[in-house]
Fold these 3 entries.
Entry 1:
Amino acid sequence: MSYEINKEKEKQLFFHNYARLPLAVTYGEGSWLYCADGSRYLDMISGIGVNALGYGDKRIINAIAEQAQKVIHASNLFLLEPQFKLAERLLDISGLSKVFFANSGTEAIEAAIKLSRKWAASSGNAEKKEIVSLSNCFHGRTYGAMSLTDKPKYLEGYDPLLPGTANVSFNDIDDLEATLSDRTAAVFVEFIQGEGGIHKVSPEFIDALKTLRGKHGFLLVADEIQAGCGRTGRFFGYMHFDIEPDLVCLAKPLGGGLPLSAVIGSKKVEDVFAAGNHGTTFGGNPVACAAGLALIDALYEDNIMDKAAETGEWVGEALETLAVKHPQILEVRQYGLMIGVTVNRDASYYVQEALKRKVLVNATSGNVVRLLPPLTASREEVQQCIDCLDEIFSEEA
């Protein structure tokens, strides 16, 4: 007996905080989602950047099944082998010193905020408490993470926010120099902004940030929640820049589709947390860690990051060709398979039009069509998405 789900039942059961698409998804395979009515959709947003290997990857499924038969949850009171193996891999890749596991990106940001302020508390400067982020950023939806997020639509009605936070205008060196001081405990940076519309921090801004870190002695926190795990063609987005962060926040694809995040810290902060200073019941769940290890193994064994970089470059060129043809396209920004297409109207129009053609894209920052395809998507699949957009732009004209 089938269980029917639809938009009307959604209204009856749930708070109204999601603008869900009217698709009753039953299963996924590769880059495709299949619905209860037998239809299938090409997913070019991969669970908002979570499903790096697409749907149904056997390595992740097998890792989950194998670990679930051993122990699903045992808490952080115990030594758990999947945590140890995943931590070793993350430290080997990053070259950093210590790991803390949590469940989501926003929890990783919260942990990084706490760690930054606790580190600063031992500096001898009682005023060293300020946490700084960049304009147009998105760091999460819990109170600390939301207080760093420069998106009015996410903040309205939630005052008062966390005190001691500030924003610097994106890529504005003068504002950076005016804002940072000896009171700055940490600066949080998405080196490639995701929710903000796929924008990259400039090399000049990075140079200024490095100089000011030397002058004022703050921590640099890399938010790799959307750009991490190979999406930009390298494991971390910051690896495209000449800079080393003190803390790295990682989530979204890390758990292979299961809730998992990590904060990875340098030697500078490795002894800041003591027993009881911070914790989580479910963070570092052994099943999620086993899935995360399978994900990382796949990324390296199959050269998926190199392939993502190559496919992304090809997609960028194809979209630039569309931009010449269609004046609705104002700009194309592409970093690996993290892609933003700025258009001259509300981008949600293109989301709905693509949906009619059974292609899933995403709108962000008002007028940006965002593409976050699985890193394993074929060129033929991505070409189908490009053809879909081409058709929409042509009909609109």
Entry 2:
Amino acid sequence: MTDPAPASRPDWAATLHWGLPWQWHLTACAPMVSQSLARGRGVVELANQIAQQLPEPTRPGVRFTAQSNLPPGQAYEAFIFQTRLCPSRDNLHDLFNALTWLVLPRTKARLNALQAGEIERCGVVGRRGPLRDALTLFDENGAVLWAPPALRQALVERDWRRLFIGHRALWAQARLLVFGHALQEKLLQPRKALTAHVYLPQGRWPRLQMDEALAQEVQASSWSEKPYWPLPLLGVPGWYLPNENFSFYDDASVFRPADGKARKPQLEKARPASI
């Protein structure tokens, strides 16, 4: 359902709409966001207002501030870690970043702490190191999939027809979280080729402890190796009506076969997951 667009609503919010299947973890924030935008509030004001309405134990460990308060030359991640202030602009990209902080604060804080640690260790001159690069990729474009072993194996093998058709019924037992805020922004105008970098945790979807469990998964020792698998999101059953026609998956430019050089998945040696 698309929200109305009052005259006071910011122009950048014109394409914002709710009720999309990949927004399930943001649903609780949607009414407050819509009301704040309708009153002409920007990202900083609405995010701080929503944070104050959350129960204290679940509030993010940061407050939101204007992007202009980020000192010139100061690394963004280091500034957040040192000041507990998150510089934000009035646009959809930073809105979804703020919402992720509000909904998954422990995970965002863990990512930020690792990024700040790498900045302190290596500085910001030149290319990011492998850990910072991997964390930034997940923060912007990542997703998390809790799924039965058969789905997990089909994903790492890029066996798209088995993943989306042969095991289609198993998706009812899976939970896919679109974490990346850049990815959430792009999905407001869905394109068939939109692909997430998917992380596969072990075990059941932790439901009410999802944020805490995901934060524990963010460990520097393994994330520097980019433990992700590509997943074209609009192929997920129930997420996009055209994929009900299975010819949708015949597009090899999107559903690319494995090239035979893919990494061996760590899950082969790990405890199988269950839902």
Entry 3:
Amino acid sequence: MKYLFVHQNFPGQFLHIVRHLTAQQKHDLVFITEPNRNQINGVRKVPYRRPSGAAAQTHPVARDLDAAAHRAAAVGRTAHNLKQLGYVPDIIIGHHGWGELLNLGDVWPGVPILGYMEFYYQTDAADVGFDAEFPLDVSEYPRVRAKNTINLLAYANGGYGLTPTEWQLSTYPAWMRDWITLVREGVDLGVCKPDPKVRRQAMTIGGMRIAPSDKLVTYVSRDLEPYRGFHVLMRALPNLLRARKDIRVAIVGGDGVSYGGPPPKGSWKDTMLAELGAEIDLKRVVFPGRLDYAVYVRMLQRSDAHVYLTYPFVASWSLREALATGCAVIGSDTDPVREFITHEKNGLLADFFDTAGLAAKVVSVIENAALARSLRAEARRYAERHLSMTNYLAEYDELIRRLTGKPA
């Protein structure tokens, strides 16, 4: 089969399905994307130049649509060039978030388009208004609602939708949900797995040595920012570090902003360090930035307690990977996390805003060996039942077969 994938940052959410298809060595895979250095053998990347953003005179409510229209046009021109060269895909798979798929039905009429539906924006039931520390003025609500324009255009264009969790599906209006197929994303259980040997070895993370006797608390986010509870974790650190002298904390993530707004100046890490000052012993806390994947997995295998916090928003891959690795996870008691963690069974849930309670739950996992063993074992069992990469890819294959009439 001929597959056309589209995502502005290759390979995006399609890493595993692309690897799966290339391993079969019988498909033609083309991927339209902005230029980047990522490579997968067997995939032909076709780059398009990132278009300019919305014009300054565009009304703020319409700026996302303006940017999406420019991006859709750029991808459409690239696709037309492919068609002129004789390329006609059997299916188009991409992400609807940036508008890249909007014009492809005009280039290849009748070719099924399967679009990743990540989130339907709301002003009262998800991330907006969740954290009173960072309120959004009501004057911004029209802009939030307008972010769904691409979602709605995608629906109006026909095609098909795909989403990875029940909660993400629930954010969409009821009349859209039958159009969206739930395919739960999997984890490579052969890579993300417990390794008792790692727990008995010393390791170094970002220049900080973790002795076998140390208690390692881990936290991971693409970027260190409030949407992922970074400010909550930081405010929990003084209680956590006072509780035990052998606790070491690794806070993994970049200094940018993936979701929400930036701080008044600098990074959120700078902001929180300035707020907390001497309350945190920085000899026992390390910020290594982003880690090589093998180092990241080894850190999860060594973790004594893993903290995962998020607003009511899209759950991170790191939560799935932590569960598969058998981490004792302390997660925020928010809807996206409750889909993965049952309190006191395969993890603990903590009130997102209760910093003292979060620190106490982390310490309870560290000091109660029986609890920690139980949570680790159940986390892995949960991953084996619900996060199997094999099952994920089989469901993806079946969806492709249903849409194209051809076996993937």
